[in-house]
Design brief:
The protein is α+β, with helices and mostly antiparallel strands and about 375 residues long. About 50% of the residues lie in helices and about 15% in strands. The protein has helices at about 10-25, 30-35, 40-45, 65-100, 105-110, 230-270, 280-310, 315-340, 340-345, 350-360, 365-380, and strands at about 120-125, 140-145, 150-160, 165-170, 180-190, 195-200, 210-220, 225, 270, 275. The strands form 3 sheets. Strands 1-4-5-8 form a 4-stranded mixed beta sheet, with helices on one face. A 4-stranded antiparallel beta sheet has the order 2-3-7-6, with no helix packed on it. It is globular. About 50% of the residues are buried.
Length: about 375
Amino acid sequence: MLAEGSHYATPLAETAHAFARDVMRPVALAYDESEEYPLDELRAAARLGLTCYDLPTAYGGGGVEGLRERCAVIEELSWGDSPIAWVIGQGGFFAGPVLALGSDEQKERYLPQLSSQDPPACSVAITEPAHGSDSAAIETQARRVDGGYVIDGHKTFIGNGHIADVCVVFATVEPGSRSRGITAFVVERDDPGFVRGPRLHKMGSRCFPASEVRFEECFVPDERRLGAEGEGFSGLMHVFDVALVPLAASTLGLGRAALELAVEHAKEREAFGQPIHRFQAVSFRLADAKLRLDQARLMTLHAADLADAGRPFSTEAAMAKLAASEASGAATWAAVQTLGGAGYIRDSLAQKWFRDAKLDEIWDGTSDIMRLLIARSLFA
């Protein structure tokens, strides 16, 4: 039997939905106002296995490998609150390049701690002030020295950056070579020259912190390079392709929550002697939101199924992310519009979700970049 409000008949999705309903949703507005890091909720999620369900069992994780199952979980968590959901899921994002590029020794060193009941704060440092969507243009440099590398550079919009215990940083070992020189390294919080912060104060998604990070003559030993020199870009692109699909699912959870709120309001709110859902101006915009969200969900699950079958899915991932993020943006707009003044005040979840949803059209590839990737696939 489906958990109340859940779209997915799996035990893990039901657990995620109950956690989202009982733990995440009640504190969502408070964390949005305070911008505090939801450490208590992160630890509570860890006790249920929701921080490591997608890690291999060999490293203490839940062993969920399929993207379809991961999408089910992340949609339910984001239905509760998408910023808290991304705090919960950040360990899995960090694990991506370690699993894709790391040695057995590196996996054994870093992955088991992600399955603890007090998981570390993890970061992946890619974006730079002058380079967001063009990842091949990374300017942060890793210069070979005796026993390792010295990293110099500036990253921005880094999730968990100001509190990171461990960070995968992408840098170039061959400046000017674009993708050919991109290499990944693990930096630890006590490494000299690893400067965390300042924190960036965002329009939405406030309790999932983003920060600037600097590397100032930061020495990293050889054993913390992930893969060979120059392998970082291919690993990065694989991680991005995989990440786009759960990101699409996450923004669907947010949009679904907003639509549900708007529908309930439209049933209860009366104007001119009748519930406002009887006015087509209201009911049609909510019907359109429902249509777009369900279409995007089908595209997301299609991309997940292709990935799970070992088939190419890069274009489908871009299509899912684009469709889901724009559907969620439309659904949250429809929620604020339907609630009117009640949706605009700061103690309304509608206005919070409206601000949160905008980020999904920007991070991990803007809507413009998703369209570019889709267009390129047409003429490849």
